[in-house]
Task: structure prediction
Amino acid sequence: MANRDNPKAAVLVLGGYGFIGAEVVRALTRAGHAVTVFGRDAQMARRVLPLTPFVAGDLCDFSTAQDWLPVIQGFDLVVNAAGQLQAPAAELDQVQHLAIAALAQACAEAGPGLVQISAAGASLSSPTEFMRSKAEADAVVLQQAAHTKVWVLKPGLVLGQGAFGGTGLLRMLAAVPLVQPLTLGQVQIQSVGLEGVAGAVVQAVQGDLPSGSYDLVEDHPQSLQEILAATRAWLGFAPARAQISLPKPLVRFTAWIADGLGHLGWRSPLRSTAIRVLEQGVAGDAAPYRQATGQGLAALPLIYAGLRAGREHRLEARMLLAMPFAVTVLALFWFLSGAISLFQLEAAARHLTQQGWGGGLARVSVGFWALVDIGLALALLWRPWAREACLGMVAVTVFYLGAATLVTPQMWSDPLGPLVKTLPGLMLALITWQLLQER
Result:
């Protein structure tokens, strides 16, 4: 760890390309420390932090201190900014509890300090596995305080320049025009700026924050309704003319759908774990951090006052809102296009037989491309393949247009415009491809 005699520290940040982790890496780098990122996705790390050294590793593979010792060798401090909101219980326990418990033991044996970024309200009695696994890891980390320096930092609702998770959900809801849909509007939440979280980590690294457990929250809570109104105002959207209170059964049904989509790789901020955490509120005790540092963390108005909002942020919010609809419409368009061709195979093949094709060849061609359409629609629903599916749709559409121009050019002048109407679908695929890019 850094001190007056050695102001530079070598720091390993787990999950360093995530929403919180990336800001921690940038803050530590600005403070002059040598930072290395640990995570699963080297491509994502290069995109988010192209100049920061990277070590590949999956928390699912780290179950003992011996697994960690070669990784943490040479580092003065390790920061855990990794986490997983919702996953099968065994995987969540491994990633958020067992791997971090093994890391804490390794740090106690080898000497590096450890900063555990947890969550405000994490407790063993929490109704969600996410919060319970965080609390279990927190307890193990604090048990190592006799052997090395440890900190457990528990942020409230983290608000930052970028949009991810809860921040993305706020901006998505704020982008709804004219009206404001809302549920659990009176739930009390204490926020914290992303810069404040990163600043607390820097304080720990530099020896300006005593070891211990700290809630990183503003002094006084705000209602979710107030936070959403502040987000809308910060983005520069007009105040809502009316508020629509969404019934809890509808919200739970939406969460059920989001959970199902989670099995297809979609990480919606509306999954059931997020809703249950929200129902409990987000609260912490701001006093210990204030007493340790002599200053509190910024309140909601000051957080937003310190963040820049421009046209790109309003566009991003609108795109977050539009993306689920774009994916749904695109998938339906391609699925129905293929299904209709299969059910009306003879009618579709007639366009080719009228140009001199043999009946069998025409039917095979129509059937093949109908199955391609359906396959692309299904591939779009599988999140790891979604962007590639969009590019496949673009390629197939261009092929359709080229082939139709050569074989059935009269279709360009058809009164129903079957070829002309493919052009908006082509553009929608290109736009959706861009919307699906992660960070």
Summary: The chain has two domains: 10-309, 323-435. The chain has a mean pLDDT of 89.
